[in-house]
Every structure is written in C-alpha cells, then in structure tokens.
Amino acid sequence: NNCIAIAIDGPAGAGKSTVAKLVAENLSFLYIDTGAMYRAITYAAIKEDVPLENGQKLRDLLDSISIKLISEEKGTKVLINGEDVTTDIRTNEVNQNVSLVSSHELIRIEMVERQRVLAESGQVVLDGRDIGTHVLPKAEVKVFLTASVEERAKRRYEEQLKKGIETDFEQLKQDIARRDELDSTRAIAPLKKAVDAIELDTTTLTIEQVVAKIIELVKERV
Ligand code: C5P
Asked: I want to staple 144 with a disulfide (CB 3.0 to 4.6 A). Which of 63, 75, 193, 215 is the partner?
C-alpha cells in the first residue's frame, strides 16, 4: 500500500513542523503545514481590520483571498494573493490571535476541506492539532508529539535567539501555555490525542531521534 498519510498533532512548540518536514523529505512525501493556513487568515484579518470574533466576516475574507503554501528547504513559504507573508505569520501578534480565529466553525470547515483536498494524493505528512482526530481520521500513521512546557519554551527561545531576537522567556512560556489551553478547550475539533495515535514525548529526544522513530512507525505499516 503506497497510499500513506501521516498525521502529526500536538501542542505549540513540540517540534511538529520541523519533524514533519524532515519525515516528508526522507520519504519524498508532500508536507502540509496546516498551522500556516490558520496563521495566514489570522494575519490577513488583522491587516484588513476584520473583527476576529466574527466568524462570518472572517469566512468572507478567507473566501476572497488566495492562500498558497509552498514547501521549501527552509520550511513552508506562504503567499497571500501572491505576496510573501512567510515571516509575517510568525509574529507575536499572530501567535496571540490565531487560536481565536481558528476556533470559528466557518473557518475550520473551509480549512479542513482544503486540507483534505491537498491530502488526496495520499503520500502526505500533515501537522496540526486535529489531523488525526478530524481531518484524516483514517491516516495510516498518527503521532502525537509532546514535550514539557519548559522545554518547548526553551526551544522557541533559542530559535528566536538564532534569528537575533531576544525574547522574555517567562512571557514565551505563558504564551505557549495559553495557546495550548485555548486550542484544547475550543468546542470544534480541539487539540487532542487521537485514541489510535502514538504519543512521543520529545522532551529528552533530539530531532533526529524523533524523525527516526516516526519513519520506523511508517515502515512497520508498509
Ligand atoms: O502549528 P502552529 O503553531 O503554527 O499553529 C498555529 C495555530 O493554528 C494553533 O495554535 C491553532 O490555534 C491553529 N491550528 C488549528 N488546527 C490545526 C493547526 C493549527 O486550530 N490543524
């Protein structure tokens, strides 16, 4: 069976996108960063002054723009109406508002639909919050990636430092914990481990070790 979908879910900063991208590269699968899609609509809404608590207005905006994800060596390049917003969707402002925007049913219905279309080829790795539970409930391999809040904040902190941005560690920790709380308690498709997902606590694992484990899981299923 060469039609395999890999679902990688977990809380913020667990390393999902890094790991998902490497797994996809290794297997020559398509990598789909679903968080980038929610980030893109959040960024567009802030820019266009669309009220973030209004699901219908957000949906109208989503229907009126084009969001493109392009998988690249460095990560996912994101275009809105052809404009490169790759770095704009990773700001604190977007981090702090993306959970609210992605809690709206009208937004989720459309995003999930797009994600399923993108996943149709079958040779895919998707990372997000609801891939194993909702987007692709029949995914052949489901992984739930976790790590302690402390460790996840540390990784983000170091990531920022590398970009030359000095951030407040405690603030970072609080932001991550708050986003997890919002994502896990929302009414529609909350962040949750699928019953048939394999949980990988990455607190003490390297990226290479996590990638190797997932590839092992995939090989077991082929
Ligand atoms: O993965 P990333 O941190 O980029 O996701 C940003 C936000 O997008 C999450 O905190 C969550 O609110 C939302 N999201 C979601 N469902 C997904 C992926 C992301 O609700 N499948």
From this structure: 193
Residues with CB under 6 A from ligand 1: 12, 34-35, 38-39, 98-99, 102, 128-131, 179, 183
Q: Is the dihedral of CA 10, 123, 89, 52 positive or negative?
A: negative
What are the φ/ψ torsions at residue 57 (nearest 5 degrees)? -65, -35
Q: Please give the number of the atom of ligand 1 that sits closest to the Cα of 38.
A: 8
**What confidence tier does 86 reach under pLDDT thresholds 50, 70, 90?**
very high
Is the full-model pTM beyond 0.90?
A: yes
Q: Ligand 1 centre from 27 Cα, in Å?
A: 24
Environment class of 166 (CB within 10 Å of its CB; exposed 0-12, middle 13-18, buried 19+) = exposed
Confidence (pLDDT) at 149? 96
- Residue 187 φ/ψ, nearest 5 degrees: -70, -40
